[in-house]
């Protein structure tokens, strides 16, 4: 009988059966433990990435790397997560680790090229893109090469041929190319299509490497930096790394036979000394595997099983079929897309070149609403109302009050408040949160059309007195820009969330043409208790020149509002906006 039968694994069980019949043995092959795979972690992480949730994606990748530290797929995903959150050093480390595990992994090579491009290393990025190994997504690669050519002074053709799933990137290239050719009509048409992208909100950037069209800073990233999450590569033991054809040997055998299994699959049966087989690792996907040497006694029973975890590393190894679908999705996530803010600035330049100053200014405002740092200085300081200390009340000798509503616009609440105000003929001031305004532009337009004043309540409602100066400035600027883009006019008043004001914040706001409006009567606590409590509190504390703070988001406020209006009117009060209240007395001019 031969020492070894190296035949297809599908026939090995038949071979063993024949062998055991000749020896009058009963073979036993219990189910063996399968290796831990990266797929469950990768499936969850890629789903989160596609939703733009980089924090949850990072958490799943981190868990996966603890369980499967030698997974090329998970290291590539770690590189992608860190790249999209602009941790270039961490991304480079993760992609390099993937490339160490799989020396010709095109996805890792591409990731490193993108890191180089993000750092402004155009020549190095170009060489890497030209040298990508087989397996690269040809469309994603061509888009990157076309964009690199644009940055280096070689504009793409008028029409770029790319797969349909890369349409956003194609439109970005064609818009930039049209600008260089002075083809304003084509360029603006491409810009409008980019800005109408249904996959992102009105004033949001996609989660992708974003084309800025700027050779000094070629890529931007919209997802916030990760805090408290580190995707560090696991330590590896190169003694367990196998390449090429590797001998497998069973020691201490006295009779019986030996079977060899990899990841639970039978690969060879040997029934004579030296109980050795050769495993061709080049036919396996790169990464972790479990090799089992199973010793069968003279009765055919398993006498012992020796398991060893190894890592295979071979150039041009076949990909795992289970990994392919996730890798394809990851390629698409890492495909370049146009920055909407930078694209709006392209349109501003086109309009300015065409002599249309008003449209150029509007596009700059749009850019600032998306990413304020792209269009600094866009919104000019406002009127004289921007001067002065925070406003807490109007003229105490005039029987007027200003109703103000924080936190909107919110569908289902704002429209009900507005219906009551319109029915009662009352003008009020709405301090809107920028992200809510961006999500409900139609409600914002209705407020203005109904005679309401629209003011600034920050973009995401943070404590403006505790965050950094530039972050606070961008919170106010971005909301100003959103409102100006939707309504054609920027707010002139702001109210800091929670009333957290400081001299520094007042100075920042003044530079944006904003003056702080605080309050005389704050009904927030009563809104939590119900409509009756709101009515009693407001009517009991209102006084001439009062600024009354209510909230645009609580049903109790909607229920209380008609009674508040009637009660104040019965006491002889008129209703004005904050600007009217400030203008009513000379000391507030």
Fraction of residues in β-strands: 5-15%
CATH topology of the domain at 384-588: TIM Barrel
The CATH class name of the domain at 384-588 reads Alpha Beta
End-to-end distance: 107 Å
Radius of gyration: 33 Å
Helix percent band? 40-55%
Descriptive keywords:
Immunoglobulin-like; alpha/beta; elongated; 22 helices; 6-stranded mixed beta sheet; 589 residues; 6-stranded parallel beta sheet; single chain; TIM Barrel; disordered N terminus; 19 strands
Please tell me about this protein's structure.
The chain has 589 residues and is an alpha/beta fold. Among the domains are: 4-29 and 235-320, Immunoglobulins (Immunoglobulin-like, Sandwich); 384-588, TIM Barrel, CATH 3.20.20.370. 44% of the residues lie in helices and 14% in strands. It contains 22 helices and 19 strands. A six-stranded mixed sheet has the order 1-7-6-9-10-4. Helix 2 (39-50) packs parallel to helix 4, helix 2 packs parallel to helix 11 (321-333) and helix 9 runs parallel beside helix 12. It is elongated, with a radius of gyration of 33 Å. The chain starts with a strand and ends in a 6-residue tail after the last helix. The model is unreliable at 1-33 and 381-385 (pLDDT under 50).
Brief summary of the model shown:
The chain is α/β, with parallel strands linked by helices and 589 residues long. Strands 1-7-6-9-10-4 form a six-stranded mixed beta sheet. Strands 12, 13, 14, 17, 18 and 19 form a six-stranded parallel beta sheet that branches. A three-stranded mixed beta sheet has the order 3-2-11. It is elongated.
């Amino acid at each position: 009988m031969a020492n070894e039968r190296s035949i297809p694994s599908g026939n090995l069980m038949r071979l063993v059966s024949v062998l055991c019949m000749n020896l009058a043995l009963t073979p036993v092959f219990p189910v063996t433990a399968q290796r831990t795979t990266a797929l469950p972690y990768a499936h969850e992480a890629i789903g989160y990435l596609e939703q733009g949730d980089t924090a949850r994606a990072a958490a799943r990748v981190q868990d996966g790397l603890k369980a499967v530290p030698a997974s090329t797929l998970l290291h590539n995903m770690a590189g992608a997560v860190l790249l999209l959150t602009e941790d270039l050093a961490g991304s480079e480390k993760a992609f390099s680790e993937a490339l160490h595990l799989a020396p010709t992994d095109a996805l890792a090579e591409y990731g490193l090229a993108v890191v180089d491009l993000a750092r402004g290393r155009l020549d190095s990025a170009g060489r890497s893109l030209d040298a990508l190994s087989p397996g690269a997504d040809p469309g994603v690669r061509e888009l990157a090469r076309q964009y690199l050519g644009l940055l280096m002074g070689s504009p793409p053709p008028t029409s770029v041929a790319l797969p349909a799933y890369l349409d956003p990137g194609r439109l970005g290239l064609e818009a930039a190319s049209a600008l260089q050719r002075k083809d304003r009509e084509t360029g603006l048409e491409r810009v409008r299509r980019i800005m109408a992208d249904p996959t992102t909100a009105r004033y949001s950037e996609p989660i992708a490497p974003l084309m800025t069209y700027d050779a000094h800073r070629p890529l931007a990233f919209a997802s916030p930096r990760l805090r408290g999450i580190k995707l560090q590569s696991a330590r590896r033991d190169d003694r367990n790394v196998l390449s090429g054809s590797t001998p497998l040997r069973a020691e201490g055998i006295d009779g019986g036979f030996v079977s060899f299994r990899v990841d639970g699959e039978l690969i060879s049966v040997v029934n004579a000394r030296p109980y050795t087989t050769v495993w061709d690792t080049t036919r396996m996907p790169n990464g972790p595997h479990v090799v089992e040497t199973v010793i069968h006694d003279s009765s055919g029973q398993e006498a012992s099983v020796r398991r060893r975890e190894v890592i295979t590393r071979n150039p041009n190894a076949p990909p795992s079929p289970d990994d392919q679908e996730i890798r394809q999705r990851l390629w698409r996530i890492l495909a370049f897309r146009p920055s909407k803010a930078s694209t709006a600035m392209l349109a501003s330049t086109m309009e300015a070149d065409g002599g249309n100053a008003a449209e150029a200014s509007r596009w700059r405002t749009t850019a600032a609403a998306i990413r304020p740092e792209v269009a600094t200085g866009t919104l000019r300081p406002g009127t004289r109302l921007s001067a002065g200390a925070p406003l807490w009340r109007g003229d105490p000798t005039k029987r007027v009050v200003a109703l103000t509503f924080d936190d909107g616009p919110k569908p289902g609440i704002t429209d009900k408040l507005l219906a009551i105000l319109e029915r009662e003929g009352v003008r009020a001031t709405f301090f809107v949160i920028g992200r809510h305004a961006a999500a409900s532009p139609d409600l914002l337009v209705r407020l203005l059309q109904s005679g309401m004043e629209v003011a600034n309540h920050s973009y995401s409602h943070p404590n403006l007195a505790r965050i950094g100066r530039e972050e606070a400035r961008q919170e106010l600027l971005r909301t100003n820009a959103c409102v100006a883009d939707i309504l054609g006019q920027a707010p002139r008043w702001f109210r800091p969330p929670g009333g957290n004001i400081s001299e520094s914040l007042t100075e920042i706001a003044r530079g944006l043409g904003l003056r702080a409006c605080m309050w005389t009567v704050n009904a927030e606590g009563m809104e939590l208790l119900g409509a009756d409590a709101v009515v009693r509190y407001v009517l009991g504390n209102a006084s001439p020149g009062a600024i009354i703070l209510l909230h645009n988001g609580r049903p109790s406020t909607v229920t209380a509002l008609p009674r508040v209006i009637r009660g104040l009117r019965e006491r002889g009060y008129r209703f004005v906006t904050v600007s009217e209240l400030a203008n009513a007395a000379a000391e507030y001019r």
